[in-house]
Request: fold
Amino acid sequence: MALGTILVLLFSDPMVDCLAALGERLDISSFYISFVLAPLASNASELLAAYRFALKKTKATITVSLSQLEGAAIMNNTFCLGVFMLLIYFQKLEWVRTVALSQCLRDRAMNCTL
Reply:
């Protein structure tokens, strides 16, 4: 685990620099780079593995492929939510969308139970 952490520390800054340079050269907004290209680049191995499973076109491999993609999406969203919550806490930002958030969570829970 320590080796993985060290590798992430070594390669994350060059990847950010590379994506920033790509965005500048292609005149792509930093928002698009941050929320579309960076997740695709960081999850490329999971996407390729899921694609290879899906190519076998059996019920079991399609299930594994979709489960792998769903798990990756849940893990990424949970991590991003944690980062946003830490930013709100440490920057002492005021959270004014509690009602909207509770309605979204209620609606999401109701959709999951259907």
Summary: The chain has two domains: 1-42, 44-114. The longest helix spans residues 59-90. The radius of gyration is 18 Å.
